[in-house]
Every structure is written in C-alpha cells, then in structure tokens.
Amino acid sequence: SGDWIVASTYDQIAPAPPDEPGWSLLEFVSLSGAPDRAPVGGVGRVRRVAVKNGLAYVADYSGGLRIYRAGGSDSSLVGMAPPSGNGRPVDVAVDAALPLVYLASGPSGLEVVQVGNPAAPIPVATLTLSGSASAVAQVGPNLVAVAARGLNPIVTFVQVDYQPLDSTVTLTARGAVGSPFVQDPRGLAARDTVLFVADEALGLLSIGFGNPAQPAAFGSASLAGARDLDLSGTRLLVATRARGLQIVDVANPAQPVLRAELATPPLLGVTQNSASAVLFAGDEGALVVDVGVPSSPVVRGPILPPGVARDGWWTGDTLLIAASLGLERYLVSPAPTTVPALDVRLDPASATPRALVTWAPVVRAGLVGLNLYRDLVTPSGAASDPAGRRVNRDLLPPGAVSAVDDSLVAGATQRYRLEAFFSDGSSVKVAEGTLTVASAPLVGRAYPNPFRARSGAVASLSYRVPDGSAGAPLTLRVFDASGRIVRESRAAAAPVSGFGIVTWDGRDRSGAAAPSGVYYLRLTGAGLDDSRAIILLR
Fold first, then answer.
1. Closest to 60 measured CA to CA, from 324, 355, 396, 352
2. pLDDT for res 353
3. Which end of the chain has the lower number of beta carbons within 10 A, N or C?
4. pTM of the model
5. Would you say 67 and 80 are in contact if contact means Cβ atoms under 8 Å apart?
6. Closest Cα to residue 446, out of 523, 380, 517?
7. What pLDDT is stored for residue 355 in this prediction?
8. What is the distance between the alpha carbons of residues 294 and 275, in angstroms, rounded to a whole number?
9. Distance CA 238, CA 230 (A)
C-alpha cells in the first residue's frame, strides 16, 4: 500500500494445544527507507460467538471481547474490550435482560463487560476461579454458571448484582460441583433447573441447581467426550470428540434420552436453527445437518470457511462462523420441520424395562386409526427389521396419544414409527423417535434409596463379578455432592463368579454420622468402575 508492505505471519508463536492456537504477527515494512513500524501481534483468534439485538459478541482468545454488526450485510466492528491481565477468552454469554456480557477468560476466570454503549464496552468485574475458565452460560435472572478446567475442574454458580446507576457489578459464588463428576468442562446449557455440561473427558453431564447454593450432579455421564452443546426447546445437540453429533431429548431434564448419533470428524462446536444444525469440525470446515426428525439426522452439505471453524450462531438466514482470524458470514436457509418427534422414555414405575410412547394428537381428514411400529438398530447402524414390528395389538383409535411397549431389548436402540391409516386404505408416517436401552450393568442400584441411617442400618450396593475377577480387590468410595471423599473402604470381590454386595453405614472417615444429602457410591476394581447416587436422611 503506497510505500508500505504489510506482511502477516499466521503462527509467529507456535500453538500449544489444547487452548493456545498460536499467535499471529503483522509486520509493516517501508520501501522508501522510513523506519519500520512496530509489529502487531496476538490479534484475531475467535473462539465463540453469541448474538443479541443485531450485534455479534465474539470471545477472541487473544483480542478480548469484539462486537460486530450482525444484521443485514454489514459485519463491521463496533467496539472491543481487551482481555484483562493474562485473560484468554474462550466462551461468551450475553445477559438476556441486562447490558452485560460474560466471558470465560481462562486464567482470569469469569469476566463481566458492560455493553450499554457497544462502541465502548467497559470491563466491570472479575471472579477468579481455581482453574482456567472454559465455558459460561446464563442459567437464570442474575445467575450464571461458569466452568473451569485444570487440576481442580469445577462448575460454579455465580450471583450477579448489577447497579444501573453507576454500572457496578458484584459477583458472588453461590455453590459448585467439582471432581470427580466434572473433569474437563467445555460447554454449558440450561433447561429449567438442570445444567447440562459438555465434558471432554466424561461426555454429557447433568447438574441440578434448584438451590444454586447446593447444586448436585445426578445421573450417569454419557462417556462420549463432548466439546460443545446447543439447546433448543427440548432438543439438545452435543458435539463430541469421537462419536460425532449426538441428538438428546431433554423433555424431562432429569432423564435425558439419546435419540440418535451421526458419525462425523471430531467436532469443536454446534449451533441449530429450526430443523437444521451446523457442526463445526475445525480444519474440516462445517457441516449442515437436517435434525427435523431427531432419530434420523440427514447431512445436507458442507461449508468450507477459511481457517479453523470452531463455533457459530444461526439467526434467520444468516449464519456467522467463528473461524480463525475473523467472523465469516453465510446466507443459509434452515430446513423446515417436517415429521414431529415421538416422546419415548422408560417407564420409571415399571420393574422391567417398558417404554412409554406419547405423541401430539393426529388430526387428518379420513383418519380411521393409528399403528405404532418398532425395529431394532444394531451397533453397526443396520435395522433388524426395516418394516418394523407392530407394538399395538389392535388398531389404535384416531384420538389415541400414547402406547406402551413391553418388549424392549437391552443393549439396543429401539426405533419407533407412528403411521396414520385412512378410509381409502392408504397410510402415512406422522411421527418417529428412538429409545436406547443400555446393556445390563455390572453394578446395581443402591438400596434402600433414600437411606435412613439408624442404629445398625446400612445401604447396600450389589454388583456382578466379571469372569476371571473373583476375589480381586475392590474399593468403595463415597463422595458428597461437591465431590469430596467422605468414606473409603476396601474389600475383595466375591470368591466365585456371581453376585456380591458392598455396604455403607452412613458415616464418614472419622466414624461420625454424615449429614443428610445426596451422596455417590463409586465401586472400582475387579473389572468394575461405576457409581450410583443415594439420598441419606437423618
């Protein structure tokens, strides 16, 4: 440009995975003999993006918070706030009601930026965490959840008190859940009072925060290492490291149901709009997927932005992709929703596996009845009987909205299809869904549960001894809801292959009575590694 050459170096400092992506460098060289200008380094490493009121808020790993216009064709930069101290922003959330933006800023912890004037954002508060902040989400009015990874991984619920007169913000840590239930958190999303966590080591985790001062993990981890998630209504999309896209039904937040998996390259992020989703696969670019039928996702086509596609935000026909040095804009129309999803879940009141299948009322001219069909999906993805086995004995009446399936198969995915039959003899598929039934576990349920600790009473945890592990050492560890070890005991597995039992008397290491609350019994050794939740009452 005139007498100047501007040279850019992509990795002037080599990247140090998993968080440091390398630093760029801009050099200004004079051709006329004038002194060279000072180089500019460490700019433009976008990680996550969120949109509100026509503005895109970007977490830039080395540039802090960047705010761009996101409406129409104008993507110009509006304002920016550099990271504080040694902050490295990797995630961003925009407050739904207040003029505040929350940044998960690595070593600096949780950063809050006031954006009442987007052209001049002002950092107003910071909360230091025990690890490196890696994800953030608003989970309620004046309440955010922030995750940190490192030697002491933790998810903390933070109260936000904002004073509009002087724009001051006070952050107060309310409660937290840590290791071993959280190991490497990368993404957060909330429904009702349940927080879903994408953990790269453990997969999808669930934390209840009805009382933010006493949050508690519950349920089992999916064990499919996850890096991001996106929640829309009751459909939760999970971007995993090795299992591609997972589609999870969270109509009952306490019991997430896996609807389908779609094999893809390792994913870094995911976003959705209407019946479509975009998966972000780093150097492999992005992939558009139709998720209108949760049990049968369909790949629509690739998008190849420059650089490393990490995250995006989809609103209307505009798709913003955070890719390496900048924010890329695409015109992409989402697919309309077509076939509704069946609500399929295990009946918690049944002693044997039984599926409850429900659906919205079917209103069609000439409808005479409904049939529900089921086929099994093997681990290879093939269907055992594509035509399906009819679940209902007789034709269901037109007004039916539910059915029960007592013939579930453990260790398989049951795929359901609801068909409407008409007076002219024709039929059409009107809804579909899936239910995965796990194989019989080696560790049973804690009993009794709840456990009322009285003189001589114990809680029992049964287990099945794997072949060849008879007599091997076992360790039972009891954790409280915050992840602290309450009790640890060792024993030997049953002397012969079969079943054994370990017990807990409701006391801690010192022999004192443990207080009422939720505890986790984890049994390891002899080929076992599993945990079960139990409620202790005093």
1. 324
2. 62
3. N
4. 0.60
5. yes
6. 523
7. 85
8. 9
9. 7
Largest Cα–Cα separation, the chain: 91
The yes-or-no verdict on residue 382 having pLDDT over 60 is no
Model confidence over 219-275: pLDDT tens digits? 889 999 999 999 988 899 999 999 999 999 888 887 888 989 999 999 999 999 988
251 and 343 in contact (C-beta within 8 Å)? Answer: yes
Measure the CA–CA gap between 23 and 103, rounded to whole angstroms: 20
- Region of 154 please: left (phi>0), alpha (psi -120 to 50) or beta: beta
Cis peptide before 212 (omega within 30 of 0): no
Distance CA 77, CA 94 (A): 17
Q: What's CA 295's distance to the chain center, in Å? A: 18
Order of all β-strands in the sheet with 389-390 = 389-390, 367-377, 412-422, 427-437
Conformation bin of residue 517: beta by default, left when phi > 0, alpha when psi is -120 to 50 = left
Using DSSP's 3-state secondary structure scheme, residue 507 falls into strand
Bond into 18 cis (ω within 30): yes
Q: Which two tokens stand for residue 223?
A: 């064990």
Question: What is the Cα–Cα distance from 93 to 238, expressed in whole angstroms?
Answer: 18
d(C-alpha 225, C-alpha 204), whole Å: 8
Distance CA 221, CA 177 (A): 14
Distance in angstroms (rounded) separating the CA atoms of residues 377 and 296 = 12
Q: Where are the beta strands (DSSP E) in 234-339?
A: 235-240, 245-249, 257-262, 269-273, 276-280, 286-290, 298-303, 309-315, 318-323, 326-331
Q: What does the pLDDT look like over 525-534, one tens digit per residue?
A: 877 777 778 8
pLDDT at 202 over 60: yes
pLDDT digits (tens, 9 = 90+) for 7-51: 776 555 555 544 445 555 667 778 887 776 666 554 447 889 999
Taking residues 283-306, report their average pLDDT. Answer: 86
3-state SS class at 508: coil
Amino acid found at 143: L
Tokens of 243: 């299992």
Phi-psi region of 452 (alpha: psi -120 to 50; beta: other; left: phi over 0): beta
Count of CA atoms in the C-beta half-sphere (13 A) of 322: 28
Instruction: Give SS3 for 195.
Output: strand
Residues 6+ apart with CB under 8 A from 202: 181, 182, 183, 184, 221, 222, 223, 225
Q: Say if CB 287 and CB 299 are below 8 A apart.
A: yes
14 in Cβ contact with 23 (< 8 Å): no
* Amino acid letter for position 427: S
Is the separation of the CB atoms in 172 and 158 below 8 Å?
A: yes
CA 414 to chain centre: 23
Residue 329 pLDDT exceeds 70: yes
Q: Is 153 helix (H, G, I), strand (E, B) or coil?
A: coil
